[in-house]
Amino acid sequence: MTEQQPPADSSDAQPAPPDATPAAATPPAPEPAAGYAPPPTWPPQAASAPGAYPPPAPPPPPAAYPPGTYAPAPYGYAPVSPPTSTNAIIGLVLAIVSWVICPVIPAIIALVLAAKSQQEIRASQGAVGGEGLNTATRIISWINIGFWALLIVGFGLVFLIAILAGATQRA
Fold this sequence. Notes:
0% strand
């Protein structure tokens, strides 16, 4: 559907000056079919109108890090936990060792170290950690001491029963 334009009046047109050079002729674009938009041109042509913005510059390449270094951490670092009390560590080691070597004495020393460590942790007001190790030390040591106490009492009862049985048979 094309509308007809009235013929141009020759009096309205201005003649081109004789010294002007003719503009570069561009081939006419094909007419799109009725109801369809014209296809886009690729690559897009830069605007040649005066005052038009130039096409955007390509982005700069990403910055390279020197070899042997790492990029900065994007989210910061994890919070640092307080250092663990040395007495709590030694007490736990002694509580575990008391099951293998010389049962009761290392367990008692571990309980003493757990008490010292607990005082150290409370006095530091959160600057020193190790409460979980103290709890484990106390549990392991008391179980060990209770086990050996039952074992000694059991052997004592067996020995006492054996002595009483031997004394009754002599009489």
